[in-house]
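assembly run, all chains below
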Amino acid sequence: MILPQAFYERDTVSVAKKLLGCYLVHIENGKTAIGRIVETEAYVLNDPACHAFRGKTKRNSVLFGSAGHAYVYLIYGMYYCFNAVTGPEGTGQAVLVRALEPVDGIDLMRERRGSDELKLLCNGPGKLTQALAIDISFNGLPLFGGTIQIWSLESLPGFEIIGADNIVQTTRVGISQAKDKLLRFYLKDNVYISRK
DNA sequence: GTACTGATTTTCT
DNA sequence: GAAAATCAGTACC
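ok done. output:
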């Protein structure tokens, strides 16, 4: 099923954990690329590392919109990061998707990434946007019915339910503010995460 | 194996 | 002018 908008309206940390094991799907001109989310980070209220912390700007305006939309921005002048807006509208919170396990459209991902190595296709925020061809034009698009969607397959037989025992909680990557907050989550023992 | 560097643009000080 | 939610390549141990 496609995760409904209400899924994203809950608190950001819960959404970050619940997104683990879900599937990020990009369908474009009949070409499909799907990855299983294995690593996320929460950017929350009163969080100096969150782009919304210093108020609304042109770049982060989507963060202050309603939950369940994509927040995409350019980082270090060359890579895009993909987030899902969370929480009550206007609070400026989001979950950053940091790594995917390639599931479908793998040859397409290899082509876009210029690499054959499965483990290197989506194991980082800049890499997964490249593999799924996500760029700034996706900023603000809904995740519940557009060209980019997030699916949960938990209710189907044969798909693993992710519990607390399978989630590792640790500190976020690449930030200098609020370094000590434990707001990064990844699937235990998964080889497709960006780093230990 | 780890460590450092260049690429490149938006944003804020 | 500096820093930023990064990555790939190179140098060196």
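Strands of chain A lie at 23-28, 31-43, 70-75, 79-86, 93-104, 148-151, 167-170, 184-187.

The longest helix of chain A spans residues 12-19.

not gonna interpret more than that til we talk
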